Amino acid sequence: MIVRSLWKGAISFGLVHIPIKMFAATEEKDVRFHLLHKECHNPIQYQKRCPHCDREVTPEEIVKGFEYDKGRYVIVTQEELEGIAPEGSRAIDIQSFVNLKDIDPIYFAKTYYLSPDQHGQKAYALLRNALQQSDRLALARVILRTKEALVALRVYGKGLAMHTMLYPEEIRSMEPLGDLGEGIDVSEKEQTMAVQLIESLTESFDPEKWQSEHRKRIRQFIDAKVQGQAIVEAPQAPAAGKVIDLMEALKASIQQAKTQQKAETPKKARRKTS
């Protein structure tokens, strides 16, 4: 499969200039449905219409407007936005270095891969090796589509990955959520058993273990319909039951975790010896 770069520029690492290309690192795997006309099953088309002029408008007739007051807009053009873009808009300008554990995951947005371009392999390898040796990631600024983005560069696999990050003002406060249980008394015994349950379920992260069961059932359902087979019904999830006593629920959960671990141990042993 041909992988096309989304962006070309350079990493600015002090006075070191590293030409790079940027690629998408992730892709959506959701099962997508088309919206069809119920009578003839043709795909629905959408038209861009102006309700004032009561007619369809072409792309050339559409401009960008910012609503600064209810129903009042200021018009801006692409040229105007590009004119106020900061200098060095084709550079990923490294500002500082931090430890990964110092960044809460809520700040990470989207991930891209970076590869060297125009004979920049040596400088690229220098930055990658330095990040790996220091166990740091780099914080940088870059202009992507006229929007300034805060990004984090880190070693991933044999290369470099770039995570776009959210600014603090883009993170919603939890205050409106109301009562989150702060100040509620939890007994030492309950706390100990909850930690014990966490310990019993703790394991190394194996991404291959985590699959979307819902997506798998949708694909089975669709395949069955295409082949004219009976509809595959989703298995009923076990009833959660009413929690009468927190301690009893914790004891039952720990016992369930132990039983599950015993059942999985022979499978893991077989995989290691096979």
TrEMBL record:
<comment type="subunit">
    <text>Homodimer. Interacts with LigD.</text>
</comment>
<dbReference type="InterPro" id="IPR009187">
    <property type="entry name" value="Prok_Ku"/>
</dbReference>
<keyword id="KW-0227">DNA damage</keyword>
<dbReference type="GO" id="GO:0006303">
    <property type="term" value="P:double-strand break repair via nonhomologous end joining"/>
</dbReference>
<keyword id="KW-0238">DNA-binding</keyword>
<dbReference type="Pfam" id="PF02735">
    <property type="entry name" value="Ku"/>
</dbReference>
<feature type="region of interest" description="Disordered">
    <location>
        <begin position="255"/>
        <end position="274"/>
    </location>
</feature>
<keyword id="KW-0233">DNA recombination</keyword>
<dbReference type="InterPro" id="IPR016194">
    <property type="entry name" value="SPOC-like_C_dom_sf"/>
</dbReference>
<dbReference type="GO" id="GO:0003690">
    <property type="term" value="F:double-stranded DNA binding"/>
</dbReference>
<dbReference type="InterPro" id="IPR006164">
    <property type="entry name" value="DNA_bd_Ku70/Ku80"/>
</dbReference>
<protein>
    <recommendedName>
        <fullName>Non-homologous end joining protein Ku</fullName>
    </recommendedName>
</protein>
<dbReference type="GO" id="GO:0006310">
    <property type="term" value="P:DNA recombination"/>
</dbReference>
<comment type="function">
    <text>With LigD forms a non-homologous end joining (NHEJ) DNA repair enzyme, which repairs dsDNA breaks with reduced fidelity. Binds linear dsDNA with 5'- and 3'- overhangs but not closed circular dsDNA nor ssDNA. Recruits and stimulates the ligase activity of LigD.</text>
</comment>
<comment type="similarity">
    <text>Belongs to the prokaryotic Ku family.</text>
</comment>
<keyword id="KW-0234">DNA repair</keyword>
<feature type="domain" description="Ku">
    <location>
        <begin position="54"/>
        <end position="182"/>
    </location>
</feature>
